[in-house]
Design a protein that fits this description.
Layout: E1 5-16, E2 19-26, E3 33-34, E4 37-39, H1 46-58, E5 60-65, E6 70-76, E7 79-93, E8 104-108, H2 109-116, H3 122-126, H4 128-138, E9 141-142
Parallel strand pairs: 1-7
Antiparallel strand pairs: 1-2, 1-4, 2-3, 2-8, 5-7, 5-9, 6-7
């Protein structure tokens, strides 16, 4: 049985003039677009890790979903990862993000789904508007002042 390392990713989104937009990052190699993600460390919840990844890699913070909205598997260099995805409604964009060299771009959902080149994430992205509406109705999105970007660095 293969052992998977657990990572947490955030799916940063905002309401734009033309609908919901998602923030994607360019990989270090510059060949792919990806979501901000980090490995879940001991004594840190996946949700905390997703908030930290959003701040460190994309320089954004806001309201994070209380539970994972989906997951996917990823293999890289013989290592396997299980990535939990959390929705993040962006409230603030920080100019002083720790990884300023990573290029980021706000994209409409359909274009973001194509750019990610991950078929397993496409339903997650395209279903985001209804998920946002459900979350607002059930108040699943929490404001996280206690999980500031500098929390547990």
């Amino acid at each position: 049985m293969a052992k998977y390392r657990v990572h947490a990713a955030s799916l940063p989104f905002r309401q734009g003039a033309d609908g919901v937009q998602v923030l994607l990052l360019k990989s270090r190699s510059g060949r792919r677009w990806k979501l901000p993600q980090l490995r879940v460390r001991k004594r840190r919840l996946p949700r905390e890790t997703a908030a930290l990844a959003a701040y460190r890699k994309a320089g954004v913070s806001g309201s994070l979903s209380t539970a994972s909205i989906g997951d996917y598997r990823q293999g890289k260099g013989g290592r396997r990862r299980s990535v939990l995805v959390f929705a993040l409604e962006v409230k603030e964009v920080h100019a002083d993000r720790p990884k300023p060299r990573l290029r980021s771009k706000w994209l409409p959902l359909a274009k973001a789904a194509r750019r990610l080149q991950r078929p397993e994430l496409e339903p997650l992205l395209l279903g985001l508007p209804s998920l946002i509406e459900d979350a607002r109705l059930r108040q699943l999105l929490l404001n996280l002042p206690e999980l500031s970007p500098l929390h547990r660095l």
